[in-house]
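Memo subject: From amino acid sequence to discrete backbone structure tokens
Keywords: amino acid chain, backbone geometry, structure tokens, three-dimensional fold.
Body of memo: The sequence and its backbone structure tokens, given next.
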Amino acid sequence: MATNSSSPFWKSAPLILTCIVLLGLSLAPSTMWAQTYGQITGRITDADTKEYLPGANVMLQGTGFGAATDRNGFYRISNVPTGSYVLVVSYIGYEGQSIEITVGDKGLTQDVSLKTGVVQLSGIQIEGLRQGQNKALNVQKTADKIMNVVAAEQIVSFPDINSAEVLQRIPGISIQRDQGEGRYVQVRGTESRLNNMKVNGEQIPSPEAKTRNSMMDIIPADQLATIEVSKVITPDMDGNSVGGTVNLITKSALDYEKTTLNVTAGSGYANLSGKGYPGASLPGNYQAGVSYGTRLGEAQNVGIMVSGSFLRTDRGSDNNQPLWGPATLTDAAKTVVPWGLQELIVRDYSLRRDRMGASGTLDYKPSEGHKLSLKVIYDDFEDSEIRHQLRARMSKGKYTSATVITGATYERLLRDRSQEQTMYNVIGRGEHDLGSIVLDYTLSYSYGKEKQNWYYSPTFVGNAKVNYTLDLSDTDIPKYTITSPSAGYELDPKNFTFSALRFQDYLTGNKAYAATVNLKIPYRLGGNPSDFKFGGKMDLRKKDRNGLDVNYTLKSGSTPVLLTQFLGDFKVENFLAGNYDFGALPDPAKVQDWFKANKDGLLVGAVNRDNTDASNFAVEENIYAFYAMTTINFGDLMFLVGARDEITQDKVNANAVQYDISGNYLSTTPVSSDKTNNNILPMVHLRYRLDTETNLRAAFTSNLGRANYYDLVPYRIANDQSSTITMGNSDLKLTTSYGFDLLAEHFFQRIGILSGGFFYKSLSDIIYTRLYTQVGGVYNGWQVTQPVNGGNATLYGIELDWQQQLTFLPGFLDGLGIYANYTYTKSKADLAGHAGSKLPGQAGNVANFALSYQKYGFTAKVSLNYADKFIDLVGVDSDNDTYYDSHTQLDANANMQVFGGFSVYVQFMNLTNAPLRYYIGDHSRPIQREFYSWWMQAGVKFNME
């Protein structure tokens, strides 16, 4: 349900909040305040290691009273009638305990230590990978919603360097890659914009200028203690989560009973980049990380955890990009070849990526049931790139046939740039058990930015017209032969003259202030233990971009400048298996020096208004939310129902740019918009415990999907020369979604899970970018590119998960483990001109399979990840949709404990040389193919816990 209103929300906020509080108090009968009720608290630990056991199930036998332990092993059972009970504690992989207790009106503290059970009896200790998997599965088992949990030990068991790559191993998740590394995360067939990415419970800022997507490659994997992926949300969670919510949790000293120290140091090799980044004295593949946590104070109630990491990788890629489109022949009939080769671009990339991460946590527990914490996380990702490019422009000539072109052109280009993304979060949280009320609150500040450290991109144009003969027998590797002026013309730098140099400088910022408060009140409904929870959140965000894009050309009458002036010792060898040749290449340092010496002298700049005026904007997005929910336990059945109200205010300032019929800039006009949306989101969750190890779950949820920030900007670029308009859309509606989920899950005492589920989502007002022809008005007949709301869409699928340690096998085989999951999704979307289209971002099949071995201090894993193709960009019709092609990647890693806490490790990634591939309409029309070969890391680790 959604309504629009221009009146400020705060006029009605006190009334709304008062009604919610009164409702909660009315549900709590006066008897709950009497002295005939008590509370049971305690901590569940490993009897041998003293480690906390999160997700342990603690129940009062024969009643509906119970709780699950938090990440510190702590549990609380409130509003328990005084009397005698049997406290039953169970945990996967451990022997359960039953303890007779007596609850008085002053409550009871009952700690329990559990001993490892059937796993230890088979000779396998719960440590390392198994220990992490075990903790994660127990938290997942006792959760009140459908979710997946990954612990730190599992995170490091895969050879994944950033958070996106860790997430690809989880059921239902696929990723988009950049230069071979994971970047954007898609959950259950939804594009990344429709998922909520958080760190320590607060949304990760998006440093990129034009998207809402969070770049998950900015956060190193070794910063994390736990990852929680909620496939469905509860009313106390942010509503902008059509696919799911991902929460990255950093480490805390109170997660451990004693001091902990972890150190990692290593180096690596990338097969394609070989000797490393151009101009660097040494190849740059280094890794270092350290985390230290300890408890302070006489009561050991202060925890300090600090961690830091640095990763430098020198990589490379081989890329070709054919451009396909209509080509008109020179025959008398003017025959049109519908998919002729219009251009062929080949690119050689050299990359240096530096990731630096630091985090710190300060926890203080003044007394049992009270906790204050401060978490700080800082990440910096610098991405430097040198790109050499050849560009054969067939469409600039005449097509005698589909494979013979005369009078065309040829260009050579260089791009030397460095982008830097920075993100930090400061989060303060308080948790207080006030007897009959549990209060928690959060204050946070987040900031993300992206800046262009430098950007120089010169173009050198061939000094003669070119005739081409094409070989299109393999459209993945289209080839050309230059028949005139002469063979090898394109390889001689004397044939190319400086045409222009593009210079960029910009800064994008995304900052957010958020405050949250939650109260939980226990009560009894018909004798059944229940609780009522309500609260609110204020989230104030601002995203802006300020940049300059200038095109520099030679001053009129100047002597031509040849490519030979900039040559260095750069070479590209065996490019794409020897199918293309680059010849002599310019030196980026010489280009920079020449530009700085001649800027505003020999070189004259003209501002590119599209990438300056039309790309600069400011968006203020304020979100105010209120919710109320109740959880009732009818024996083995948990019932949760509630609703969330989210009010979204967007204020946008931008520019509209106008050009004349010759393509000359005319004017820039400021534009703005202001609107408010109100959405009420009802939700219901059920969990039925068939037995101590088996759950049946069901959920009905409703969610929101907000547009990309830049899509909301009312910018406009009108070009009279090409009769085209590119524009934003401040009238975009929020996408709303209703979903149904069913899941059955069974947990193995020998550490594992077998689960299967079905999900269905119905979406309204989906958002996509549309290309259409304007009808009527001043721009009648012009081609318009604009983000728009489509109609409705449906998305459904199944999700299967099997994880199991095969400890029942004989001999050395009992060290084997299986990690496998599969997700199938299907969608149908109402897009203009696209009958029966799929949702953008929906990958039909996503699967993971990993075989692990852990015994005698040795751990190894071979991992296979597959993600199906999906629509990345909606074209004018289905034949022009752009697809992100399917991806299959094989990785392997091993770790060997040497002595004490020391171990050595080795990791191999992309052993199958899986490429990045896009195509348009049909698989036989690739528009980008990029290969990276394999890379590896090796080093040493020290763990003291």
About this structure: The first strand starts at residue 2 and ends at 4.
